[in-house]
Amino acid sequence: MTDRSRLLACLVFALALGPASIANAIAGPVDMAPINAMDRAAFVVKFGGIFEKSPWVAEEAWERRPFASLDEMHATMVTVAKTAPAARQLSLLQAHPDLAGKEAQAGTMTASSVAEQAGAGLNALPPPEFAELSNLNTAYKTKFGFPFIIAVRMYTKEGIFFEFKRRLQNDTQTEFANDLQNVYIITRLRLNKLLDAN
To answer: Which of 54, 75, 96, 98 is catalytic?
Structure first.
């Protein structure tokens, strides 16, 4: 089974059990002792990029150590984001780049976003699809005031376009919640990848 097939198969569980449970099924066991022993600066250097350009999540999560497991660590980070004031949550959403947008063209996306979007083929769209995605980005941000966020590693390119069009029909409150839920899935997948790489 390919990595993408495994992730897509796990999406069913993600919908039922939430991002922490599904992501844990993908990751192997992690020795938490070295993580719990990190000082604040080291922890933020290591994990501050998990939430897109929002190191404050890792900074606040560090104060709640020790973590018994990777599940608990990610759940703590999610709690920090969930309990943040709405304005800070909005800033978190606005820190995310558009899909194949200006940041991608300018080369200013984070390494995680570059890898995620490339994995879904968004870095090599034919001109008609690129134009369509650009129009969808504009329509979504105009309607809601924040970018469309989706855990692209869990979808095919066609699925991303489908979800984009479907979610454009929602109201702002629904999409604010949808974006945050996708952030939680993305961050768990990033956390797994970061620790697997080490």
So the answer is: 96
